[in-house]
Amino acid sequence: MSKTVEFFFDLGSPATYLAYTQLPQICQQTDSQLIYVPMLLGGVFKATGNASPATIAAKGRYMFQDLDRYAKRYGVPLKFNPHFPINTLMLMRAVTGMQLRRPERFEAFIDCLFRALWVEGRSLGDPATVAAVLSEHGFDPAEILALTADEDVKAALKNNTERAVQRGVFGAPSMFVGDQLFFGQDRLDFVVEALS
User: Fold this and answer.
1) Residues of the chain with pLDDT under 70
2) Which CATH number is 4-195 given?
């Protein structure tokens, strides 16, 4: 298996959640490897001068209607999170920490957080809610909190974010097949073509 998809992601993006629901199946069908690369979308926005489409009222309304259309097409649940947007710094440090320190539980970890945000509409900007979600899924909130303070974890997330920007990433989700960048969950058909 020499083909890979590098998936640069931040939990706080609903479009990223939709891509996340589709990429494992795409990689299975194309005999490709999915490489998860957590990054901080706020850091990418700051470095590139970009901003969430939700900051423009008309564009934000359209974006959520369009994402809902795609969710129906994919046959996956999607609920607009009333707490959007949220600061994902601690969440993405936790994700990075799990990838580095507990890789065997990494996919279950991001799955429970994506679902909490984009299916259950929970407030993951609230530490008590995060702790509750983690406990419900068999994770130790104290262990996860410790990961977010780990200097190696912080450095890894920062490095991932800087590397994303250097490679031309300006938003999420961003996927690379080789050196080709594909931005947005609505570009997955091009990812499939690049892998085929």
Assistant:
1) 1-2
2) 3.40.30.10
